[in-house]
Every structure is written in C-alpha cells, then in structure tokens.
Design brief:
The protein is mainly β. It has 2 helices and 19 strands.
C-alpha cells in the first residue's frame, strides 16, 4: 500500500520574520484584539481558567466519556499538571493540582504531554516529564495517577513512576494505546534513537518494574540531530482494519517511519520516508482513517 506524504511548512513560516528583519523591515507584530474577531459567529467562549502565563499550559487532554467531564493541563513552568472539571462549561473549576517535588531544582522542560486511559473500570492519567540531565529527577520520565475518584481531588492518587536511568532526560511525548491483543500499552519518546513500549496493565497492577517495558521501536541508522541522539519527536498509533495490523507512525531523526507493532516485543518496519529535500527530521505524523495517506509536520534545515 503506497503512502503519500504532505510536508507542512510551519517551521518555515516561523522563520520568515527573521528574514524580513534581515532585509531592513521595521514591521511590528500587532497586539491581538481583546475580544473575539472574525471566524464563525456561532463560536462563543463559555468559560475561562487563567493558567498564569507562558508555560503554564504546555498541552491539553480531555476525557471522552460524557460522564467524566475532566480536562488535564500540564505546565512545564513549575513542573505540574492540574485537572479541570468542565461539567458546567460556563464555570470550569480546578479540582486537583500536582507539582513535582523539588521543582526548583529541575532543569529542562518538565511536564509536557499527558494522556488518560482506562483499565478494568478504573481511570488513570500519565504525565510525561522532560527533565534536563543536569538537574533533579533527570531519570524520571513519567508519573501515573489513579483518577477514578474525580471530581473529588482528594481521591487522586499517584501509583507509579517510570524511571529511565539508561537515558536521562525524560519523556517529551507519549501515547496510550489499546492494542488489538487487549493490552493497554504506553509508547514514549526517550533521549535515544528509539521509542519505548510499556505494558500499562502490569504497571497499574503493581508488577515488578523489570516487567514494565515490552520493547522498543527503533529509528534506523540515519544522520541524526539533537546532539547526535536521533530520537522520535512524536507518533501516532492505530489499528489498520484492512491489513489487520497495529501500526506505529513516528516522526523523528531523518524523517518518518511506519512499523507493524502487532507483536510489540518485535516491531517490524513497513515504510520509511526519509531524504526529503530540506527536512532534517520529522516532527509530527498522523494517518488518514484508511491508512492510505499521512499528514506530516517537519523540521527544516537551512
């Protein structure tokens, strides 16, 4: 099955102001309006939760069951995440906030991506932590919480921590996935030329840490970036009904890679999309529902 790639130019657009400045332009960026302008007249802001400024909301995750109207917002400024109850959209409420201990001693980005998942009727949230190698908690990649008891924040409990001592620097992005074999899996970036795969069922059941990791999704030998580490930046995982395969779509050093992960302990590469002119690495990749196409965002090298 052929896969067609569309390369987005987001990074290129970001560089344009600098190019204009170099040509002597004195143009300034206008301040955004204080009220909604343009767009659909049917779109209205219902509620607002002040986050505190840049870095206080690095990502967002929302549960998908109507009976659980909870939103998770991690913030790398302060190394924390909070849970917001949006049952009443006009009056959203913060019902829980967690902050990593010794946050002032942590280097790097801290709390980045977060995902919720469900196992045997209980609900969980996993928070990634991309802590720098020179500060506190450099080996800590993610923290998992039992959030079944929401909206009562006092019932939120930390249950596990994923440490990655072999690759200090933590986790930038992660993806929780219900595998076709029934297991709940967690895919994470790591400061190394591969992604890690963890068995969430075993983690929440209290199995020994030696049993948590199932395997790795490698990046082939390519010209790497990020100081020679050559890791993944982001990925998407889905079941392909046509081929009866669980598939991993990853963007990272050199470009993009698609793996058959039907056997998580032995991923098999299906396609690679590398050598794209001007692209030093893949940033984000998402397939169409039928698996025939992917839309990508790229990192450019000038």
């Amino acid at each position: 099955m052929a896969i067609k790639t569309f390369v987005m130019t987001t990074a290129l657009a970001v560089c344009l102001p600098g190019l204009l400045s170099a040509q002597g332009s004195s143009a300034t960026v206008p301040e955004p309006p204080a009220i909604k302008t343009g767009g659909s007249p049917n779109m209205h802001a219902l509620g607002h939760v002040p986050q505190g400024g840049f870095g206080f909301a690095s990502d967002i995750e929302m549960e998908q069951e109507l009976s659980r109207p909870y939103v998770y917002t991690p913030g790398f400024t302060g190394k924390f995440f909070q849970i917001i109850d949006v049952k009443d959209p006009s009056n959203p409420k913060v019902v829980y906030k967690w902050t990593l201990e010794d946050a002032d001693l942590v280097q790097g980005s801290g709390a980045m991506d977060g995902k919720y998942f469900k196992i045997k009727g209980r609900y969980y949230y996993v928070q990634s932590l991309q802590n720098g190698q020179g500060g506190a908690h450099a080996n800590l990649g993610a923290v998992i919480f039992d959030v079944t008891g929401l909206p009562d924040g006092s019932k939120v409990k930390e249950i596990a921590r994923i440490e990655i001592p072999e690759s200090p620097g933590g986790i930038h992005n992660l993806y929780a996935y219900k595998h076709s074999d029934g297991r709940a899996l967690l895919f994470t970036t790591v400061i190394a030329p591969h992604a890690n795969i963890y068995d969430l069922d075993k983690i929440v059941a209290g199995a020994p840490k030696s049993e948590w990791k199932l395997g790795e999704v490698p990046i082939p030998a390519v010209t790497s970036r990020r100081g020679g580490l050559g890791g993944y930046h982001d990925f998407y995982i889905a079941y392909d009904v046509a081929t009866h395969q669980d598939k991993f779509y990853g963007g990272g050093a050199g470009g993009y890679y698609v793996y058959d992960i039907t056997k998580p302990n032995a991923p098999t590469m299906l396609y690679s999309m590398t050598g794209i002119a001007g692209v030093s690495g893949g940033h984000t990749i998402t397939p169409s529902p039928d698996g025939k196409y992917v839309v990508t965002e790229s990192e450019y090298q000038f």
